[in-house]
Amino acid sequence: MPVPFYRYSYKTATSEMMTDRYRESKAENIRCVKYIEDENTGFYANAYKDNCVDSDGKYSKHLIEEFGLERVMSIYAATLKASIHDGRISPDMKKWASDFNAGLRHEEDKSDLHLSKMHIGIVNILARHAVEEYNKLKLFSSEHCISTVGEDLTGRVVVVSPKHLKEEYWAPENQLWLATGGFGCSPTASGRAVYSTCLIDGDENRWDRGDIIGIIKDEYLPDWAREKLQEIQNPEQESGMELK
């Protein structure tokens, strides 16, 4: 299992008493960068053949298995952002890099995430490979949601951002939660807490309103989620059906 990627600053880690996790993640970032650039384990030695960039995708998949998708994408994004005006970076990947982890790790030294020995055009291609792997997960995004702006979340099925889930839980079913209460459900309250129940397994958790992408649009709510929602909202009815 890859070392979990810690997204936030040292200041945040200190306030949350997670400095050990911060240091462990930073060390793994450095190991990943060195691994990619190493003359033996690196990209040029293992995935750049006859002017083809990881044509079978094996090296990219190996990196993700070894270091985790979020860490690999973060390294590519930070490297591309550092050269954002370079014409060898495609427009779509410039936008992706600029948007990636927006608002996270701000004011933080990102030198541990930079590939300094890689041709930026190659990083552009590798980043695209990583994004393709991410897209295969078919996670819910803002396009599947109604905005939370001005909306009361109580009793609504909300979508939690994958940025606030451990990578091992990056699956659409783990993003769907029934908001049950908390000041964060109100669009006007100063509180941020949204108490919720996970539809897939009934787990209960406290989310921050900012952790939520939006309210799932009805047309994107899977059939299994509708059934689970019915069970949660009408437990007596479900119990009666079982007794019969």
Q: What is the assembly state of the chains in this entry? A: single chain
Mean pLDDT: 91
> Structural class of the helices, strands and pairings?
alpha+beta
Number of domains: 2
DSSP strand (E) fraction?
5-15%
Radius of gyration: 21 Å
Relative helix content = 40-55%
Q: What topology, given as strand order, has the largest sheet?
A: 3-8-4-5-6-7
- The sequence of SSEs as H and E is HHHEEHHHHEEEEEEHH
* E-strand count: 8
Largest sheet report = 6 strands, antiparallel
Cα end-to-end separation: 45 Å
Q: Choose one word for the global shape.
A: elongated
The number of distinct helices, counting runs of at least 4 residues, comes to 9
Which stretches are low in confidence, meaning pLDDT under 50 for 5 or more residues running?
none
Please render the helix and strand layout as text.
Layout: H1 10-15, H2 19-37, H3 43-46, E1 48-49, E2 52-53, H4 58-67, H5 69-82, H6 91-99, H7 120-135, E3 145-146, E4 157-160, E5 176-181, E6 193-198, E7 204-208, E8 212-216, H8 223-233, H9 235-243
Antiparallel strand pairs: 1-2, 3-8, 4-5, 4-8, 5-6, 6-7
Helix pairs in contact: 4-5, 5-6, 5-7
Could you write a compact summary of the structure shown?
The chain has 244 residues and is an alpha+beta fold.
Q: What does this entry look like structurally?
A:
By secondary structure, this protein is of the alpha+beta class. The chain folds into 2 domains: 10-135, no CATH class; 142-243, SH3 type barrels (Roll), CATH 2.30.30. Helices cover 40% and strands 13% of the residues. The protein has helices spanning 10-15, 19-37, 43-46, 58-67, 69-82, 91-99, 120-135, 223-233, 235-243; strands at 48-49, 52-53, 145-146, 157-160, 176-181, 193-198, 204-208, 212-216. The strands form 2 sheets. It has a 6-stranded antiparallel sheet, with no helix packed on it. α4 (58-67) crosses α5, α5 (69-82) packs across α6 (91-99) and α5 runs antiparallel to α7. 29% of the residues are buried. The mean pLDDT is 91.
